[in-house]
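Hi support team,

I'm opening this ticket because the web form for multi-chain structure prediction keeps timing out on my end. I have pasted the exact lines I submitted so you can reproduce it. The total is 1121 residues across three entries, so I didn't expect it to be a heavy job. Is there a limit I'm missing, or should I split the entries? Thanks in advance, R.K.
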Amino acid sequence: MSNSLLNYASITKKISMSIIGLFLAAFLLVHLTINLMLLLDDGGESFRAAAEFMGKNPVIKVFEIILFSAFIIHILLGIILWFQNNAARPIGYQRANITKTSLMSKYMIHTGIIIFIFLGLHFIHFYFVKIGLVSGLMGEDGHPDFYNSALELFKQPLYVIIYIVSFLALGFHLNHAIQSGFQSLGWEHSKYTPAVKAISTIYALVISVGFTIIPLFILIAGK
Amino acid sequence: MDLTLKIWRQANAQAKGKMVEYKVTGVSPDSSFFEMLDVLNQDLIEKGEDPVAFDHDCREGICGTCSLYINGRAHGPDSGVTTCQLHMRKFKDGDTIFIEPWRAKAFPIVKDLIVNRGAFDSIIQAGGYISVNTGGVPDANAIPIPKVNADAAMDAAACIGCGACVATCKNASAMLFVAAKVSQFANLPQGKIEAKRRVQNMVAEMDALGFGNCSNTYACEQECPKEISVSNIAKMNREFLSAKLCADVKDI
Amino acid sequence: MIKLDSKIPEGAMADKWKNYIDHAKLVNPSNKRKLDIIVVGTGLAGASAAASLAEMGYEVKIFCYQDSPRRAHSIAAQGGINAAKNYPNDGDSVYRLFYDTVKGGDDRAREANVYRLAEVSNNIIDQCVAQGIPFAREYGGLLDNRSFGGAQVSRTFYARGQTGQQLLLGAYSALSRQIKKGKVTLYNRRDMLDVVKIDGRARGIITRNLVTGEIERHAAHAVVLATGGYGNVFYLSTNAMGSNVSPAWKAYKAGAAFANPCYMQIHPTCIPVHGDFQSKLTLMSESLRNDGRIWVPKKKEDAEAIKAGKLKPTQIKEEDRDYYLERRYPAFGNLVPRDVASRAAKERVDAGHGVGPTGIAVYLDFEEAIGRLGKSVVEARYGNLFQMYEKIVDEDPYTTPMMIYPASHYTMGGLWVDYNLMTTVPGLYAIGEANFSDHGANRLGASALMQGLADGYFVLPYTIADYLADQIHVPRFTGKEPEFNDVEKNVNERIKKLMSINGKQSVDSFHKRLGHIMWEYVGMARNEEGLKKALEEIPKLREEFWKDVRIPGDTAEFNNELEKAGRVADFLELGELIARDALNRTESCGGHFREESQTPEGEAKRDDENFTYVAAWEYKGDGQEPELHKEHLTFEAIKLVQRNYK
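Hello R.K., no limit was hit. The queue was backed up. Here is the completed structure from your submission:
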């Protein structure tokens, strides 16, 4: 697959990256909503219900395939672009570039890698447990108990630090990504682009802060 | 002003280059950057050494020949100017100034600070024109063009082809250069006729020449001496997308 | 022995070009493919000619010394391009543009050429719009015009302050299209070092690859020089650093007559010289004179105080300012032709009223315009020029008047050409600034772009066919002919000689000294004594150059000093011819002002009885005096009268 991806025009790759990226960004909001249910004081009832819905609904099953493909293509494309971009300047400058650029836009691959590593951890802790690749905490019904697994994890300070760093990276990634996605798709307009940039930043804040408060709350409240 | 210069010296395309240190003294703050380099070269010639080769021609900021990467910035610390319009008053007495050539795979070094920007010519040759022959064209006022479109076309057309966008881009991408031409024509009714072909061919040529991809860092816009907006890149993306989606198979 | 035949077609002035087209010989499409044409130079004239010729089917080779054809110095023209469209409905016509151009040229241009120029001017605008050049427009979507010096109508089309750039990019894009098609082969970073003639006809050129140093031969059925002007003979000028006379000079030495070398335009609105290290003068567009008012202090004490930095221009009261152009020329005011404006500035500075730290400058003031139009309108019109000024001078022209002073800008003289634009060497053409034909003794603003594109798009493609029609049976030249051997040998010997001098002084130092001599004695105002002095000094400097110039490096590599040395060596010869021509022409006309020939008020005084001719100089060998040939100018459509801008 990566070979045929290589042959697409640069702008085609960027446009694909954008569409997929914006899709993934939207998915994050769904995920955040479910995660925030961890904070509800209902012994995990809502969270479990949501998790079950996500795990069993056939539409979601199809969606899951799309989601995984999106992740893989996004990551592959990111790596291809990064290699191509590096190859475009085989000999670098002695004096590093100090031109003012869009915040953290130069570090998308780096923030991306952090997010990718976190994604790996996340899979080990949850998704692989779900599909039975890895053993994990089981509930009374014989299904994995993600509610308690999550609470357990959030009690480990090291994990919380990794978690927070990852979501900080995700925040920076998103802050540039969303408005950059609009730019790559050509959705640019003198009237609306400032709003797009603002929304981009707000969305990045909502996602990263939203996810981050969960472990902090759990850790501090000692739930 | 007394200055220390660290300049990239490379005898020719094949040779290995290195940074060489020079001192210049008694530079007037009113002189231009090139006049400062002229002083250095005069010195080197008198000493029987090879003067530093750098590209320059009009020395009034319009021909786009000059191309120095100074202290980590294309065309140096001032913005909205080419190197030839950069004046020494932007530096302080005793400064050390790093002077390097544009760096990109598509811009191989010719000598010292001179690079070959023939890639830009190739991109224009791939479609940066409206295919009309001399003669037999309609009256100039036959097609009214909204002022706002004509102005937008002019904004884009102001590109001088210096390559600062490529030089400063972390990916050595030529998107701003290509977008400026695509956008100029896309803003005009005359240019719409072959717009689909043009954008596809120019982008294909740009890719084939080994320029990097656009990461939307917008550094190009910061260093462009003509301050060409990245909104032209968005416009090109739009043009490209619609061309890819809607153009007839034969329309390339 | 040269015989000048201008080959002006028969008929009334308005019918000549039509008659020519009706009767000129043609080359059929299948024969065009068999004919090669060399074009040297990629400015407006060269690029437009090469593109047009290739579109017609000829095989074209084009050469430029720059890294890309898009960098030719046409790109620096700011103000605009004239055409007789009469879109503003202010009474313009082909005749009026013709009339203004001949009058602006002080009745020293060839009428038939100028009329043709005015006729095709409208086609140029149509062509450029079709190419996608973003000319300025009104809100209604139609093209906007502005006025320029020497005209009482608004006939100048413009693309912000970058008209030359946009027109050049248009021609460059047309050229690029033909390069892609394989009809034009581009040779960039090449210096043309000589012309090759076979049986008296131009059949090729010798070039040096500026990157590798290789000497190359290029052959063709005809050679077109579009190599620009020679204003850099002054060292400091508004020309690009690389602009040079060498190709035209080599043509002159190969037998092409050089016409009116003393007609040089000193542009009134340049940023003044500020120091000895200066390498280049920057032009501020003449369009600034539309709204700016030129003045100096009335009192010498004020000028002195400004020079000493004790007084600011804004502190000088209205009644103490001398708006000398408005005073002397009430009808045209600040919009008098360039030569008149330049001399008037020099007159004030010489009289001790100059301003600025050097005292060699006058003010161009926008206070009144800002008051009348508002800052935003002024900014929309001239914003980029103001910004450029501020970058260079470090003063804000919105709040303090600009300082300007005249500088060498354009050369009306050049290779002599007939109506076909052919020089006195058969098959060798000169177009654009490189020829002499259309601007007489002074060029009006916004006419250089018009002439370059007229020659390239609409004149040469017709006239060259008339010559090539006889050449269709001549097989392609290969460059291996013995004539190429001889010329290449000479070229190599000259390079070897330059490199072997190994003296002490740099090329630039000689160029600077030549510039000083030229500015001092062959500058804005000339007299017999000064010119004779120049004729003594220049050969002496040339001799010193050939004994003591130092060129580091090698020939077989990129060697900028060697490039410059070749060019300066030619300037050192040209300078002498300019002075000789200026000495010969004892009248004042246009850009050529002889102090001996002026009215009591200090205006230029022409001598129509003795000087209504083109002075065409024939090269007679090194160390020999060139021979003067005269093409007498006849005026059918226009009455000869002394210029009057009062």
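A quick check on our side: The mean pLDDT of chain B is 96. Let us know if the file doesn't open in your viewer.
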